[in-house]
Amino acid sequence: MNAFIEILQNAGIFLGGLVVRLLFFLAVLAAILAPVLVVFESVRAAKALKRRREGMEVIGGVKLLPRRRYAPGHSWLGRRLLGGLRIGLDDLAQRLFPNLSAVELPKPGRLLQKGEPAICLRSEGREAWIPSPIKGLVVAVNHAVERMPGLLNSSPYGGGWLYEMRPATIAHRDFPTGSSARAWFRAEEDRLRITLEHELGLAAADGGQLMEHPANLLSKDRWEDVVTSFLGAVPRRSSTKNRA
Questions:
Q1: 3-class DSSP string for the chain
Q2: Which residues pair with 167 in a beta bridge?
Q3: What pLDDT digit, counting tens, does each position of 22-77 carry?
Q4: How far apart are CA 44 and CA 41, in angstroms?
């Protein structure tokens, strides 16, 4: 009987030691992870604050700046000094070009017609010419995005802007902004999601939000169809002819 009690006591001591070791391990793990979690939450909070300050909104997982104007081909237009306009591609457009490898911009001094091929984007062996949303004179380009094409992916409304124009008309004032842009953008996000789900035969949304770069799952021909439908992209042969 005494031996049995002694065994139980030893087992209790052993289990108690395991519990102490486990608690010590968890305490050390918490001490290691706590700073990481604090930094992660701080970065996320800082990004959220930056988006609020900029007026950034998220619609179906796609970012939108309601203060900009948006052309039907998903170019955004922002006002500059002396009536100029800065032009870029919105977040939905950049998702059609994962891992951009090259961005070709128009030369300053070039007069672009509305719908004329203006920029060339190359992504994972695919290429598309994106038309100018308006008629106007190119006055500046973003050389940084030529050197680092990924800026268009990571910062489409900021460091990934493309070029600046002096508009020849005031037609851009008819492009949606504010609540109108928000409604249009939501409809376009839904259209892209439904298009991709039809093409891929699987859900292009994750928890109601559009996948980061679902278009890279498409064949080259179907990708070109989607890019043409949403961005008004010009085929290579036509773009070369128009620029000649």
A1: CHHHHHHHHHHHHHHHHHHHHHHHHHHHHHHHHHHHHHHHHHHHHHHHHHHHHHCCEEECCEEECCCCEECCCCEEEEECHHHCEEEEECHHHHCCCCCEEEEECCCCCCEECCCCEEEEEEECCEEEEEECCCCEEEEEECHHHHHCCHHHHHCCCCCCCCEEEEECCCHHHHCCCHHHHHHHHHHHHHHHHHHHHHHHCCCCEECCEECCCHHHHCCHHHHHHHHHHHHCCECHHHHHHHHC
A2: 136
A3: 777 777 777 787 676 655 454 454 454 544 555 899 988 899 999 999 999 999 99
A4: 5
pTM above 0.90, yes or no: no
State how far Cα 37 lies from the chain centre. 25
For tokens 């139980």, what's the residue? 8
Distance CA 68, CA 204 (A): 27
Say how far apart CA 232 and CA 70 lie, in whole Å: 14
The answer to whether 181 and 70 have CB atoms below 8 angstroms apart is yes
**Listed residue (238, 210, 235) closest to 224, CA to CA:** 235
Residue type, 1: M
Phi and psi, residue 115, nearest 5°: 90, -5
pLDDT tens-digit series, residues 140-185: 999 999 999 999 999 999 999 999 999 999 999 999 999 999 999 9
* Joined tokens for residue 47: 């990004």
Contact 114, 77 (CB under 8 A): no
Q: Using CA atoms, how far apart are residues 130 and 121, in angstroms rounded to an integer? A: 8
Q: Using the structure block, give the residue that is written with the tokens 């991709």.
A: 196
